[in-house]
Amino acid sequence: MTTTLQRSTASELFEMPDDGFRYELVKGELRKMSPAGGEHGAVIWNLSLLLGLHIKANGLGQGFGAETGFKIASEPDTVRAADISFVRRERIPEAGIPKNFWALAPDLAVEVVSPGDTYNEVHEKVIDWLDADTRAVWIVNPRKRLVSVYRSVKDVTILSEEDELDGGDVVPGFRCKVSEIFV
Fold this sequence. Notes:
21% of the residues lie in helices and 32% in strands. The chain is an alpha+beta fold. It has a single domain (36-68, 80-180), classed as Alpha-Beta Complex (tt1808, chain A).
């Protein structure tokens, strides 16, 4: 669940003092993100571990945690922070990973649905990521024990616990049983 606070820019968001909350900026609106529960965190950990080990072992690029902001639109600014994200090695600048928000969309954005999230909030995130040229968005739903894989708004695959999640050409070679993600 999110709370809209005020109008801001990406620079103002980056300079905000840490107050223990996580924020996103959507079309200039600063949104406070409620802390997630234990199940949410465990699902993120499980998938981060599986995905991260594969990414590192194969030198594919860099994975990022939930606090990593990606500036995906300007005037008004939008800064999103997926629960898990991934940027391919060839897209990482020679100067290295930026200290500020990334000025690009990740190749993969993973959103884990919290109990307080509404359908509209999740859908808005999917659209924002896809509009910013994120190549794949995975929506992980712990309550329903499903993973929805979006390549576009019209190209969606829904996976159950019996299915296998495949990284396709976004995270080549990655595979895991959907059941491995859930606690």
